Amino acid sequence: MIELKSLSRRYRSDEIETTALHDVSLTIRQGEFVAIMGPSGCGKSTLLNILGTIDRPTEGRYLFDGEDLTARSEAALAQHRAQRLGFIFQSFNLVDDLTIAENIELGLLYRKGRQGSRRALVEAAMDRVGVGHRARHFPHQLSGGQQQRAAIARAIVGEPSLILADEPTGNLDTENGAQVMEILKGLNAAGATIVMVTHSPSHADQAGRRIDILDGRLVASVAQAI
Ligand SMILES: Nc1ncnc2c1ncn2[C@@H]1O[C@H](COP(=O)(O)OP(=O)(O)O)[C@@H](O)[C@H]1O
Ligand SMILES: [Mg+2]
Question: Ranges for the ABC transporter domain (predicted)?
């Protein structure tokens, strides 16, 4: 599904150049659940952002289902994201003044489809993560765990083939973190490919493969028994 070939990402300011990713080559097959680990600042979010096409590599190629995304226009990438990708963040990123149902519907914003079917998709996504009874509440009325589950519903409402999660359990306590992991594993079992950045070794252990990054380089990629 994903093939990264000698990917690098450099940030340049007036004087300083930072290499966030250095010569990363990586293949991720459809249906995999990959955990990415590494110390703060090693390039994990940069890698996830490039996989999500919200950032572009400075060098190298990114193939998705055999198609080179590095050459495509912003409009084409926006369509790609809307049709195929779902994003989950550490800090939930819900919109404060929209209800939970409205927040989840944002996940369908750039997708085609009739109003009636959109409502059914939103309801199915809410039920899947257990926030259906909070549809008309606002984010601040929910616990952190509920907010993250609503954010997962927003990510999956369009039935993406690839889910990208950047420290999805980083702001949650043990129990809520475990719930999020169960939801992600269920989505993976149902066919979604998942790439998750985490600092939690026990959460990384639940993925089918673990990738370690150090100073922008991929230093290990190990299949795990799950
Ligand atoms: N927009 C940016 N401009 C300049 N440097 C950046 C930018 N984003 C990230 N970096 C740098 O790239 C490196 C990797 O960052 P990041 O991918 O966020 O790491 P991680 O997610 O592993 O903590 C860090 O040195 C960071 O300071
Ligand atoms: Mg990060």
Answer: 2-226
